[in-house]
Amino acid sequence: MEAPLVRAYLEALPDVAPDERSIQRVRTCLASLQTPDVRYLVAALLGPRSAAVARVAGAILHAAGAPTATLGRSLGDLRLGDVPIDEGLIGKAGTISASAGYQLAYSAPELGELSRREGVVILALTAFAEASQRVALLLDPPVDPSDPVHAPRPDLVVIGPLDGPGLDRALDLVPKGCPLVIAPMPEAARESAEERITKAGMPALVGGRDYAVVGRDGQLEVLVRGEPYVRVDAVPDLSLDEIATGIAAALALGALGIRMREDWVVAGIAALGAVPVGS
Predict the structure, then answer these.
(1) pLDDT for 24
(2) DSSP label at 86?
(3) SS3 breakdown of the chain: % helix, strand, coil, rounded to 5?
């Protein structure tokens, strides 16, 4: 199918909220496509600041030579690096993913019909594999456990500044043994998160404890376990916590097999429009 037909296919799917079978429908379709999501590292970014954190992590990973894609809320939010996926890839991935949707109706009718959101997720995960991406950043700003974005098992979970029920939902989404990055957050919320991750034995980088970004001589100094790691310039539209969490996420993905160097962190932040001292 050409891209316009793919868009028409997606528009024809019901635009409904996720239900208790959404994730199973997507997993069934992915399995029929030989699980394209195993061909790249998957990071789930949770919370309202997930898009900003993804910008930082993606820029650093790109500077490190690791092609990184981002899945937001709609087809228009799919990015390879910092650009939307092109029409050719929409057509190719859409044709493949639509075939899985049609097959689902015959092989597992008890699961019900795909929704538009589910169709977009399947298309995106297929497109990322077809485009030979190294990392996929999957965003869930509202932290919805039933959202089909949680169909793939993540290799890393990044939790933004949350508290109360939102933080509990986010921690519930972390698979056993999966590494975790927690953004800097108020002391009470951080202590609550630390209590849970310690009890569950989750491997975690906790903002304010294991990493931070502080102002130093007009620049931002990244601290890892209290020790200086690298200095970067400030980015006008990003907060210190967003920059810190994005850097921590990139470093955590680096530990999963992506070579990372300090100068690539600097280059990634610079690519976001960082303003050098004295400019």
Answers:
(1) 98
(2) P
(3) 45, 20, 35
Residue 83 falls inside a structural domain? yes
Tell me if 48 is assigned to some domain. yes
Mean pLDDT of 239-264: 96
Query: How many other C-beta atoms are found inside a 10 Å radius of the C-beta of residue 73?
Result: 15
Starting from the edge strand earliest in sequence, which strands make up the sheet with 68-71, in order? 83-84, 79-80, 68-71, 135-140, 41-46, 156-159, 180-182, 204-206
CATH no. for residue 201? 3.40.1190.10
Q: How many domains does the chain divide into?
A: 1
CA distance 188 to 156: 24
Range of the domain at 180: 3-271
What is the number of other CB atoms lying within 10 angstroms of the CB of residue 191? 11
Q: What is the pLDDT of residue 217?
A: 86
E strand map for 68-134: 68-71, 79-80, 83-84
Confirm whether 277 is domain-assigned.
Answer: no
Determine the 3-state secondary structure of 274 from DSSP.
coil
Amino acid type, 239 = S
Check residue 218 and give its pLDDT. 85
pLDDT over threshold 80, residue 278: no
Phi, psi of 229 (to 5 degrees): -110, -50
Burial bucket for residue 257 (CB in 10 Å: 0-12, 13-18, 19+)? exposed
Asked if the structure places residue 132 within a domain, the reply is yes
Task: Give the DSSP H or E segment for 128.
Answer: helix 116-130
Of the pLDDT bands very low, low, confident and very high (cuts 50, 70, 90), residue 163 is confident
